[in-house]
């Protein structure tokens, strides 16, 4: 890819989502992206940022909740003030990614944005970066480009991307047309998708000319588009805070998939690069177990600097956010998450049910621990 | 029984033993007898004390560790200063019960002592008190009398008492001779004991003339006997503390079973009253489950005033010593003990293995949580 095209590239990291299935580790005040869930020494948002630097340099914008300002800046001290977009309330992905597109478009209408969620685990990074380079080259031909993940099992937990004809793009040998995005399927349907070889997991990665993003947004969500343009017009001026405070709360809440990706695919404007890197959205504690091998001597995966774990005839995962001694005796595939104000005890098989517990606690008024 | 005999009766409560299998609830600084393990609202030592009052009035002596002075007095504010025997270090049951016998003997050589551990659960109390009355009547004939528990299962966790011929004692229709005390048997042997009907569980309950206790102690452990007599001679004088501090650390460490009960039985001096009350020594968390029924709606036994437990498809026991939210999901027969500095997660089937964990923690230097 020529340097001129790469110079048009700007990274965007939407950092939202509590990660309810990782409660009580992940919670409103300390969402998933602020944790090191792989034992790498980096939080997920820091790892996401560093994965993009070779492509973007410091041209990276972060969109997150107002409450996370201090924590995000502690993780990303390099971040410029005008590249930190703080939401006064959550407005879903169309508003978050759309505002980034609108601000960048004001700065330079030729920019190509690449939006990658702050809470995914990806490796090897070089393979990921190669896929992004192909996506940039394809986006430069006037496409919204997603990077789809090659499925490894018939998951009913992800949306899928149905791939179409191969595209002829210089610098993007694996680019294909996208026929459609499909919602989370049944497990049976997912088995068919896996067997066909035509489907990829939708990981919410978008690389696209900002102008094309805004064009589709204007067509499908005109009120949202106009509001975002109004904020963007004030962004690099002294009126930024005042205008954002006035407009943001009035914006409609919708997902980028509905507002842009799906209608753009129907219009023939979406391409896909198959991602052959390892990818995990760390959706639950079973994922923590996959990403962090158990100690060979004890059979236990332990996460947490201060953890003091004793085990006898036990296996599973201990995530410790305290300095307490934790003794596990005669219990298998257990998941224990120990935090100062909440304790979760479950099994790997029930990792998905954690969300239900959080909903129950919310309903019963135990919001202090959410 | 005539009032004259009952007037000779004095209660003794040895309050020792950490209750290692109930860690981390029970521990050195807060042993088993200082906990309410039945949800009755009373600690075990308070319940033990109140069970004896109808027989003794306030004539009750407590032998416990120096460290528990404040906690024991908080539980038993009625306790007279001269009836609180504080051990500067643990010296096992022969020294503890023997010192009580020696002090009481100084006060009145005709006294009959009744020694009952501080950490057992007994009911109905009237049935227990009837058994003690029979034991007092039998002791008055010049016997060391134990109250043995009618076995309900072939337990290999208790010592047994082999009963002999029926005795003819006024006021003690169920009194029998004791042939011998036997150590904890194998489960097979225990099955034989249960089938024979000749064996009772040894619950460590002794009712005996203090003079007869001291006589056997002098015969079997003369050094211990002489040391205890020296402390007893100073007990109700200003020299109490000085003499105790000097002598106690030099005393031999042995169990009352070896020092008195077994040799006395061999000499034909021991009788037994079969106890037909319910009895539990609350030896482990499985016992906590037996003694505290699970909630019908959740299947979980919850102990702890501040407990905030959410469960979904789970069963077992939660003992909470914190105000944390505890969420249990998809896990059966679990035992969770949540304290500020230590957490235990095990199953009812592994309740006995908790002791091993404590030994491991001791060996690895984690004594702050023991």
Give the SSE map.
The structure is a homodimer of 370-residue chains.
Chain A (H helix, E strand, L loop, with lengths): L2 H4 L2 E7 L28 H13 L3 E6 L3 H7 L8 E4 L4 H16 L4 E4 L5 E3 L1 H15 L4 E6 L10 E7 L9 E7 L4 H10 L2 E11 H11 L1 H14 L4 H8 L8 H11 L3 E6 L2 E3 L4 H7 L8 E4 L4 E5 L3 E5 L4 E5 L4 E5 L3 E6 L6 H10 L7
Parallel strand pairs in A: 1-2, 1-4, 2-3, 6-10, 12-14, 13-15, 14-16
Antiparallel strand pairs in A: 4-9, 5-11, 6-9, 7-8, 7-9, 8-10, 16-17
Helix pairs in contact in A: 2-5, 4-7, 4-8, 4-10, 7-8, 7-10, 8-9
Q: What attributes characterize this protein structure?
A:
homodimer; 370 residues; alpha/beta; Spore Coat Polysaccharide Biosynthesis Protein SpsA, Chain A; 2 domains; five-stranded mixed barrel; four-stranded mixed sheet; 12 helices; 17 strands; 34% helix
How would you briefly describe this protein structure?
Two copies of one chain form a homodimer. Chain A is of the alpha/beta class.
Structure report:
Two copies of one chain form a homodimer. By secondary structure, chain A is of the alpha/beta class. The first copy, chain A, has two domains: 3-280, Spore Coat Polysaccharide Biosynthesis Protein SpsA, Chain A (Alpha-Beta Complex), CATH 3.90.550; 292-369, no CATH class. Helices cover 34% and strands 25% of the residues of chain A. Chain A is built from twelve helices and 17 strands. The first copy, chain A, has helices at residues 3-6, 44-56, 69-75, 92-107, 125-139, 187-196, 210-220, 222-235, 240-247, 256-266, 285-291, 354-363, and strands at 9-15, 60-65, 84-87, 112-115, 121-123, 144-149, 160-166, 176-182, 199-209, 270-275, 278-280, 300-303, 308-312, 316-320, 325-329, 334-338, 342-347. In chain A, the strands form four sheets. A five-stranded mixed beta barrel of chain A has the order 6-9-7-8-10, surrounded by four helices. In chain A, a hairpin with a 3-residue loop joins strand 16 and strand 17. The radius of gyration of chain A is 21 Å and the shape is globular. The mean pLDDT of chain A is 95. Strand 15 (325-329) of chain A pairs parallel with strand 17 of chain B, so a sheet runs across the interface. Chains A, B: GO terms for molecular function: mannose-1-phosphate guanylyltransferase (GTP) activity. Chains A, B: InterPro entries: GMPP_N, ManC/GMP-like_b-helix, Mannose-6P_isomerase_type2, NTP_transferase_dom, Nucleotide-diphossugar_trans. Chains A, B: Residues 313-361 form the MannoseP isomerase/GMP-like beta-helix domain.
